[in-house]
């Protein structure tokens, strides 16, 4: 195992707007050496995996890998099961059917294992609490609890070799604020993919929650989504 480094991070990169901005923040604002990881979990919007690889390369990440985990065998979500993705029904009062059971818990655990082998001191995730569609695994309370748990359950954490930090730089930002930050850091949003139910050629549906919040962010800035 390589020696611990305070400048090495593992970034969870879906290929969407938020995670791409978080990666740019980590590399271009913090100056960290970042290894990116995407997850092939049986999602219907697999176009995001290609976007993640492009973005990781264009931003100069040290490495990029895709970890496969079959969440379709669990189901329970419109993203991994035979359930329709809601269209034009943006209700913030509850947890929507696009919530994937324990997704961030699983992804962060796998990313933590990777961080331990790479001697990285940070996990970076693009979670935020303002435009998060009600997902409980995007809350700061969850991320703080996970950080405590991972340091109790890893060799690195228990040996005090290094304490792994979970960093969510966008946690209290809305979409417009995230986009402003990303543009300042040179993120090419035309390369990102956010749609939950893209068409066969990869074009966004324009009607799901992911499309709605993304469009709303650009509109608040008086801009058109550059992907279009």
Give a written overview of the molecule.
The protein is α/β, with parallel strands linked by helices. 35% of the residues lie in helices and 13% in strands. The N and C termini lie far apart (44 Å). It is globular, with a radius of gyration of 17 Å.
Q: What is the secondary structure topology, with strand pairs?
A:
Layout: E1 5-12, H1 17-29, E2 33-40, H2 47-58, E3 63-68, H3 103-118, E4 120-124, H4 140-152, H5 155-158, E5 165-167, H6 175-184, H7 209-220
Parallel strand pairs: 1-2, 1-4, 2-3, 4-5
CATH-level-2 architecture:
3-Layer(aba) Sandwich
Radius of gyration: 17 Å
Classification by helices and strands: alpha/beta
Count, helices:
7
- Detail the poorly predicted runs: none
pLDDT averaged residue by residue: 90
Provide the β-strand percentage band. 5-15%
Give the ordered list of helices and strands: EHEHEHEHHEHH
CATH class: Alpha Beta
In percent, how helical is the residue content?
25-40%
Amino- and carboxy-terminal Cα gap: 44 Å
Return the CATH topology.
Rossmann fold
Strand order of the largest sheet: 3-2-1-4-5
Query: How many strands appear in the DSSP assignment?
Result: 5
Number of domains: 1
Under CATH, the homologous superfamily reads: HUPs
The coarse silhouette is globular
Largest sheet: 5 strands, parallel
